Amino acid sequence: YKDVAEPKIGPNDVLIKVKAAGCNYNDIWARRGLPGMRVILPHISGSDAAGEVVAIG
Length: 57
What we know:
The longest helix is centred in the middle third of the chain and has 8 residues, at 25-32. A two-stranded antiparallel ribbon has the order 1-2. 14% of the residues lie in helices and 32% in strands. By secondary structure, it is an alpha+beta fold. The chain has one domain.
């Protein structure tokens, strides 16, 4: 694991400061590397999240 730079948002993006996250089966499948599921690295797990909107593109 390592720190990842703050992402640059595009005109249709929203940047959220995550306060809580949960893992679901999408995260498990990505971690296991199931066939047909392409994961772009670095991959940040936690497809279910709640937090504060800090920027709108």
